[in-house]
Amino acid sequence: MLNHSTGVYSPEYGPAVRAGEEFAAAAREAGLWYAGDVRAGTAGEGRLAFERLMAEHPEVTAVAAMSDQAAVGVLQAVEERGWRVPGDLSLLLASASARVAEMFRPRLTTLEPPGAELGRLGARMLIDRLESPGSPPAQRLVPCRLVIGDSSAPPRGSGAAR
Q1: What strand order describes the sheet that includes 109-112?
Q2: Range(s) of the domain holding residue 43
Q3: Cα of 11 vs its chain's centroid, Å
Q4: What is the CATH number of the domain that holds 44?
Q5: Taking every annotated instance into account, which residue ranges of this chain make up the domain Transcriptional regulator LacI/GalR-like sensor (predicted)?
Q6: 142 pLDDT band (50/70/90 cuts)?
Q7: What pTM was computed for the model?
Q8: Could you give the CA distance from residue 21 to residue 27 in angstroms, rounded to a whole number?
């Protein structure tokens, strides 16, 4: 997983921390190896992070990117290797709208946050804080929706149908 860059967000940024923890837990549960604490926020950082990841772990078959800009860099690096998405690498864009994912070629699989619901919750929480300034801030996790694109497939060499 290419998490948010520390140049853009603090390493303690809640969504980045939770996403990293949840991806790691899901990988453990599925019996998969997981590369944690790889960060990229720009196309250049995404490209370098992918190349470093592949140099250290050539068995990697899938990457999840928290930044659409980092995903651009991964796609560039994949193309430079002569690889194809999803034939050689599956790519997931985490925490992005399906509309953004549709702008990529191939159209990326994404975990889409519920923007309208998040807006409503944010407004409600702000009103609650203004009405009760001494109360602790509310926290609520809202699940993303998996939107299948054209960038994910069974791992290369798995023998599974593509």
Answers
A1: 38-39, 2-3, 62-65, 90-94, 109-112, 145-147
A2: 2-114+143-147
A3: 16
A4: 3.40.50.2300
A5: 20-152
A6: confident
A7: 0.83
A8: 10
What pLDDT digit, counting tens, does each position of 3-48 carry? Answer: 888 776 767 777 778 888 888 999 899 998 888 778 898 999 999 9
Helix 43-56 vs helix 68-80: crossing angle, to nearest 10? 50
- Whether 76 is covered by a domain: the verdict is yes
In a domain, 35, yes or no: yes
Residue 120 located in a structural domain: no
- The structural domain count of the chain equals 1
Of 144, 140, 41, nearest in space to 98 by CA: 144
Chain centroid to Cα 106, Å, comes to: 16
Cα R_g (the chain), whole angstroms: 17
